[in-house]
Design a protein that fits this description.
This protein has helices at about 20-30, 80-90, 135-140, 165-175; strands at about 10-15, 35, 40-45, 50-55, 65-75, 95-100, 105-110, 115-120, 135, 150-160, 175-180, 185-190, 200, 220-225, 235-240, 245-249. By secondary structure, the protein is an alpha+beta fold. The strands form two sheets. A nine-stranded mixed sheet has the order 9-6-7-8-5-10-13-12-11, with helices on one face. A seven-stranded mixed sheet has the order 2-3-4-1-14-16-15, covered by helices on one side. β6 (about 95-100) and β7 form a beta hairpin. The longest helix has 14 residues, at about 80-90. The two termini are about 20 Å apart. It holds the Pfam family Glyoxalase. InterPro entries: Glyas_Bleomycin-R_OHBP_Dase, Glyas_Fos-R_dOase_dom, VOC_core.
C-alpha cells in the first residue's frame, strides 16, 4: 500500500501537443493511455487518473502567474526512480534536480508543455520535518531498476499569490492539516499523517504578473479531485487560491 492513501484521485492537464505529452507521460508512468473525448487518460494505481486534455489553442501562462508548480507522482520503489532517470535521459528531458527531502527521494523535470513534474519515492523511516539536500548518486545506483513499477498521483504543488489565502482555503475550508510551515515561502497541507497532499508557494509570484490567475484555457493544471479519507470537507466543486478547480468526493 502506498503511504499517500490515494487522496488525489484525478488531475486534468491541458496540453497543446497531445502526442508529445503522451510520449512523455507514458514513459515516466510506465503506463499506456486510453482515449477519452478530447484527450487521453492514464489509469494509474488504485484507480487514480491523469487526464491529458487536448487544446491546441491553449496559451502558456505568463511569468509570475498562479497555477501549477509541479504535479508529483509517487512510485512503489526507489529502483523505479532509477528507471525514470534512464527514461528522462533517453527522451532528452531536462533533469531539474534530484533531492533527498528526508521523507522522500525525488527527481524533478518538465513535461513537453513546460509543466513541472516530480517523481518520488516515500521512504520507510520517519522524519520530523521537510529538508532539501542533494540526492547522493549511490542511492539510485544501489536501488536496482525494475522492469515494471507502479505509479500514482502523490501530491499537487501550486504557485499562489498569498500563503495566508492558501491556508484559509486548504485548512479552513477543506479541513487539511498544515504539516510544514517552516519552509521559506511555502506551506504544506495533508489529510491524515502524510507529509503533504497539496503544497503552495510564492517563490515565483512576486514578479511578472504577480500571482494573477491564468485564463481558463491555459496550458497547465485545469482540475484535480481529492477524496478526504475522513470526510474532512464537504463534497462539491471549489476554486483554489491558484484559480484551479478542486473537486471533493
Amino acid at each position: 500500500m502506498m503511504r499517500h492513501g490515494f487522496v488525489i484521485r484525478k488531475a486534468i492537464l491541458t496540453v497543446r501537443r497531445l502526442e508529445a505529452a503522451a510520449r512523455f507521460y507514458s514513459s515516466i508512468l510506465d503506463s499506456k493511455p486510453e482515449p477519452v473525448p478530447g484527450g487521453l487518460v492514464y489509469r494509474l494505481e488504485a484507480g487514480s487518473e491523469l487526464v491529458l486534455q487536448h487544446n491546441p489553442q491553449a496559451e502558456k501562462p505568463p511569468p509570475g502567474a498562479s497555477g501549477l508548480y509541479h504535479i508529483a507522482f509517487t512510485v512503489d520503489s526507489p529502483g523505479a526512480l532509477r528507471a525514470v532517470l534512464g527514461k528522462l535521459r533517453e527522451m532528452g528531458s531536462l533533469l531539474l534536480g534530484a533531492s533527498d527531502h528526508c521523507f522522500t527521494i525525488a527527481l524533478y523535470t518538465l513535461d513537453p508543455e513546460g509543466n513541472g513534474v516530480e517523481v518520488y519515492w516515500d521512504k520507510d523511516e520517519p522524519c520530523r520535518r521537510l529538508v532539501t539536500k542533494p540526492l547522493e548518486p549511490r542511492v539510485l545506483a544501489e536501488a536496482g531498476s525494475p522492469m515494471e513499477y507502479r505509479a500514482s498521483i502523490g501530491h499537487i504543488h501550486l504557485k499562489v499569490a498569498d500563503l495566508g489565502e492558501a491556508e484559509r482555503f486548504y485548512a479552513g475550508v477543506l479541513g487539511m492539516v498544515v504539516t510544514e510551515r517552516g519552509y521559506p515561502g511555502a506551506l504544506f497541507f495533508a489529510y491524515g499523517d502524510y507529509h503533504h497532499h497539496v503544497a503552495a508557494n510564492i517563490w515565483e509570484t512576486a514578479w511578472g504578473v504577480r500571482g494573477a490567475r491564468p485564463e481558463r484555457y491555459a496550458v497547465g493544471l485545469r482540475s484535480y479531485t481529492m477524496k478526504p479519507p475522513g470526510g474532512e470537507a464537504e463534497p462539491g466543486v471549489y476554486r483554489d487560491p491558484a484559480g484551479v478547480e478542486v473537486v471533493i468526493l
